[in-house]
UniProtKB/TrEMBL annotation:
<keyword id="KW-0547">Nucleotide-binding</keyword>
<dbReference type="Pfam" id="PF02540">
    <property type="entry name" value="NAD_synthase"/>
</dbReference>
<dbReference type="GO" id="GO:0009435">
    <property type="term" value="P:NAD+ biosynthetic process"/>
</dbReference>
<feature type="binding site">
    <location>
        <position position="172"/>
    </location>
    <ligand>
        <name>Mg(2+)</name>
    </ligand>
</feature>
<dbReference type="InterPro" id="IPR014729">
    <property type="entry name" value="Rossmann-like_a/b/a_fold"/>
</dbReference>
<dbReference type="GO" id="GO:0046872">
    <property type="term" value="F:metal ion binding"/>
</dbReference>
<dbReference type="GO" id="GO:0008795">
    <property type="term" value="F:NAD+ synthase activity"/>
</dbReference>
<keyword id="KW-0520">NAD</keyword>
<feature type="binding site" description="in other chain">
    <location>
        <begin position="267"/>
        <end position="268"/>
    </location>
    <ligand>
        <name>deamido-NAD(+)</name>
    </ligand>
</feature>
<dbReference type="InterPro" id="IPR022926">
    <property type="entry name" value="NH(3)-dep_NAD(+)_synth"/>
</dbReference>
<feature type="binding site">
    <location>
        <position position="56"/>
    </location>
    <ligand>
        <name>Mg(2+)</name>
    </ligand>
</feature>
<feature type="binding site">
    <location>
        <position position="196"/>
    </location>
    <ligand>
        <name>ATP</name>
    </ligand>
</feature>
<comment type="function">
    <text>Catalyzes the ATP-dependent amidation of deamido-NAD to form NAD. Uses ammonia as a nitrogen source.</text>
</comment>
<feature type="binding site">
    <location>
        <begin position="50"/>
        <end position="57"/>
    </location>
    <ligand>
        <name>ATP</name>
    </ligand>
</feature>
<feature type="binding site" description="in other chain">
    <location>
        <position position="180"/>
    </location>
    <ligand>
        <name>deamido-NAD(+)</name>
    </ligand>
</feature>
<comment type="similarity">
    <text>Belongs to the NAD synthetase family.</text>
</comment>
<keyword id="KW-0460">Magnesium</keyword>
């Protein structure tokens, strides 16, 4: 263990490794209580989350659904609801995975909003995009997709006086693997402090099928590299990232890759700069 590992783990609020199913159950209860308290304190009754088909949104979505079910049972108020939103860009190549996730989550309501027309309409208004190399343009529009998805979620949440849930956790936060003001924007982040393996354990414990909790993670934002695995982008595995965050030994190569990426993406984890 190095001082940087301890420093970064503390900054990201990384929780201790699970040692038993009881640990997982306790963490699930803690996260549901957090969502419940946040919703109650805000005096709102609706939660909104975009569902991609990956384990992060699946776990967060199921926690949200369980929360509103508990609140309805405890208060008798049927206005507490969770809205899951599918946000494909045209036709998602792994739509079957998204549908499996939705079946597991069993949300009160499911909406589908195709973001392609909005992204395309915006792109047509920005001449600079046409001057970019193809790969760079694809990357820029990938971030636009992430921001358009968050815009859609906030529009629905605002219309219903609700809150938007984020899916960020420690293994993504350390790599800055989110779009600023895109999937990095939310009202509450119930997976915060967890590493990837812990998110998988929670999803499995909640009853997710193996196809959901073991799915290869992908942001899937670039048309020229559809479905590219997160780990290929990182250049390091989630097993190594989890080990690093839990202050276990990792290879020098993995250590340097994680620390360098963490330092380079620090701006993503901070509030806007001010004078």
């Amino acid at each position: 263990m190095s001082n940087r590992q301890a420093e970064i783990a503390k900054a990201l609020g990384v929780i201790a490794p699970f040692t038993s199913d009881a640990d997982v159950d306790a963490e699930i209860a803690k996260r549901i209580a957090f969502i419940k308290n946040t919703l109650t304190a805000s005096r709102t009754k609706v939660l909104v989350l975009g569902i991609s088909g990956g384990v992060d949104s699946s776990a967060a979505g199921r926690l949200a659904q369980l929360t509103v079910e508990q609140l309805r049972s405890e208060t008798g108020d049927q206005a507490y609801r969770f809205v899951a939103i599918r946000l494909p860009h045209n036709v998602q190549h792994d739509e079957s995975d998204a549908q499996a996730a939705l079946a597991f989550i069993a949300a009160d309501e499911v909406l589908t909003i195709d973001i392609a027309p909005a992204v395309s309409g915006l792109a047509k208004q920005i001449g600079e995009l046409g001057e970019l190399a193809s790969a760079r343009r694809d990357f820029v529009l990938g971030n636009t997709k992430a921001r358009m998805r968050m815009l859609a979620q906030y529009t629905v949440a605002n219309a219903r006086n609700g809150l938007v849930i984020g899916t960020d956790h420690a293994a993504e936060a350390v790599m800055g693997f989110f779009t600023k003001f895109g999937d990095g924007a939310c009202d509450l982040a119930p997976l915060s402090g967890l590493v990837k393996g812990q998110v998988r354990r929670i999803a499995e414990r909640l009853g997710a099928p193996a196809a959901v909790f073991s799915k290869v993670p992908t942001a899937d934002l670039e048309d020229e590299r559809p479905g590219i695995p997160d780990e290929q982008v990182h250049g390091v595995s989630y097993d190594d990232i989890d080990a690093f965050l839990q202050e276990k030994p990792v290879s020098d190569t993995a250590y340097q890759a994680i620390v360098q990426t963490y330092d380079k993406t620090q701006h993503k984890r901070e509030l806007p700069l001010v004078p």
